[in-house]
Specification:
Length: 149
């Protein structure tokens, strides 16, 4: 019984050290995707809610692109193991459209954080007859924006 105590202590420290060594993926910060769009997430609150801004590199419209607000939520369950799932909505400031993104924040084999997402872009159409062509679908991969020195 007495000998079990140091053994438990070693086990506890080993598990603790392992926990510290595993890098977690954080949504907070500046991101760029494979299209060259930029996204900033200021902070994620205790409930997993977040807000930010999105500057798309491309548009399905002929409108001038403007920075647009986003609102989202992240799973806070402990089962997420530092690689949380999330979703967010961008309400475009310069068009009648809305895009919803859903994805997961991963730490890749090089230790780099990456957001793997899928999105639905809903455009406005004038009649229900045109509903069939109103939604586009795609994927985007985001990496942290590296600031140039
Ligand atoms: C619009 O064209 O009505 C608004 C801009 C949509 C930009 C889309 S959203 C999905 C994809 N990922 C991006 O970063 N930009 C495009």
């Amino acid at each position: 019984m007495v000998q079990a105590t140091p053994l438990l202590l070693v086990l506890f420290l080993a598990l603790g050290a392992h926990g510290l060594a595993v890098k977690k993926c954080s949504l907070t910060g500046r991101w760029v995707n494979d299209l060259g769009s930029n996204m900033t997430i200021a902070s994620v609150n205790a409930k997993g809610l977040f807000a930010g801004s999105y500057h798309t590199a491309v548009t399905a419209t002929s409108n001038e692109i403007k920075q647009s607000p986003l609102q989202g939520s992240m799973q806070k369950s402990p089962n997420q193991k530092g690689q949380p799932t999330f979703g967010f909505t961008v309400n475009w400031s310069f068009s009648d459209s809305v895009t919803v993104f859903t994805g997961q924040c991963f730490v890749d084999e090089q230790g780099k954080e990456v957001l793997k997402t899928m999105w639905l872009l809903r455009s406005h159409v004038d009649s229900i007859k045109n509903d069939w062509k109103a939604t586009r679908v795609g994927t985007n991969v985001f990496t942290r924006l590296q600031l140039q020195e």
